[in-house]
């Protein structure tokens, strides 16, 4: 039985890949949790029927009144809403900037004590990538609306049912010749999603904390080629890795985006050209007393669970 401290935290995006882990880790730290999403039935499927310590409510981050209702009486808020592929009115700007500002402004109006905004490593208003640029603008918008906001920038995250590691594993099994993005030199520092969720739980629980940016990367930095090799080795595979120029990937993405549900987007190709490595100057897992899990260790758990 988890002890409860009677402080409620609203989690926007609480049914997503990271969000649902944040909900569970907040509960393990004793918080009451209100999961806010456009589809509260998903919350009920994930966490069971509502109870005093854990509730799923309907909320639309594009609507001020809806956001305000989800924040009523909350001690803290985590904005874990993210968008990786734009479609219709759901754009990087509408989600990562406008809605982020809306959540922060309503949190201030509701006298919320603590706001944690989930961004991403490399967030930069000057980036050529529209996704990364909007992440950077979103951070500025949140800070302007809620001066004491805390920012969490995870590296690319992995774990069971993700869209990253499980996809790579599946493709490595299916393709004896694996096409790499470029020459495989892009650097990445994958972080285990449960470690990131635990870090957010600890951050919410900490005593008074000034506005801080945390960057969470895993224990090892890989080149993309090294990462593919490590994953293949753990899975007992030996594919041939073939470099494919980024110009080819951009052309494929351009063609793919002509369809309603593109398999590849130009934004995704751009992201594969940018290193995502945590800065040693930023606080991270170490400052929160967390020893991050390696990709290799979690792959073994994932593979054993599939047997």
N- and C-termini, Cα separation: 31 Å
User: Which strand order does the major sheet show?
Assistant: 3-2-1-4-5-6-11
The secondary-structure class comes to: alpha/beta
The CATH superfamily of the domain at 8-156 and 191-217 and 279-290 is NAD(P)-binding Rossmann-like Domain
Which spans of ≥5 residues are poorly predicted at pLDDT below 50?
Answer: none
CATH class of the domain at 8-156 and 191-217 and 279-290: Alpha Beta
CATH fold type of the domain at 8-156 and 191-217 and 279-290? Rossmann fold
Number of strands: 13
> Any idea what the CATH architecture of the domain at 8-156 and 191-217 and 279-290 is?
3-Layer(aba) Sandwich
State the share of residues found in helices, binned by percent.
Answer: 40-55%
Q: Count of DSSP helices? A: 11
Oligomer: single chain
Can you write the helix and strand succession as a string? EHEHEHEHEHEEHEEEHEEHEHHH
- What's the overall geometry? globular
Beta content = 15-25%
Main sheet makeup = 7 strands, parallel
């Amino acid at each position: 039985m988890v002890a409860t401290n009677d402080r409620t935290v609203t989690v926007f995006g609480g049914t997503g890949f990271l969000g649902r882990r944040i909900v569970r880790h907040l509960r393990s730290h004793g918080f009451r949790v209100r999961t806010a999403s456009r589809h509260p039935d998903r919350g009920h499927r994930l966490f069971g029927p509502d109870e005093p310590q854990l509730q799923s409510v309907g909320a639309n981050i594009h609507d001020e009144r809806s956001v305000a209702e989800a924040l009523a009486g909350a001690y803290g808020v985590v904005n874990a809403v993210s968008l990786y592929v734009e479609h219709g009115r759901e754009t990087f700007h509408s989600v990562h900037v406008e809605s982020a500002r809306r959540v922060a402004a309503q949190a201030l109006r509701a006298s919320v004590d603590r706001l944690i905004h989930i961004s991403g490593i490399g967030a930069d208003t000057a980036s050529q990538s529209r996704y990364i640029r909007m992440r950077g603008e979103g951070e500025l918008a949140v800070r302007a609306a809620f001066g004491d906001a805390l920012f969490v920038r995870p590296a690319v995250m992995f774990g069971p049912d993700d869209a990253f590691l499980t996809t790579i594993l599946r493709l490595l099994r299916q393709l004896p010749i694996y096409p790499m993005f470029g020459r495989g030199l892009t650097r990445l520092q994958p972080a285990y999603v449960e470690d990131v969720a635990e870090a957010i739980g600890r951050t919410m629980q900490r005593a008074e904390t000034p506005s801080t940016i945390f960057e969470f990367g895993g224990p090892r930095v890989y080149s993309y080629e090294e990462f593919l090799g490590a994953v293949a080795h753990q899975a007992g595979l030996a594919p041939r890795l073939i470099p494919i120029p980024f110009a080819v990937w951009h052309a494929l993405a351009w063609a793919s985006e002509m369809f309603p549900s593109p398999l590849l987007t130009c934004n995704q190709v751009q992201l594969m050209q940018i290193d995502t490595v945590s800065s040693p100057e930023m606080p991270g897992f170490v400052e929160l007393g967390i020893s991050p899990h390696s990709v290799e260790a979690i792959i073994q758990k994932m593979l054993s669970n599939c047997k």
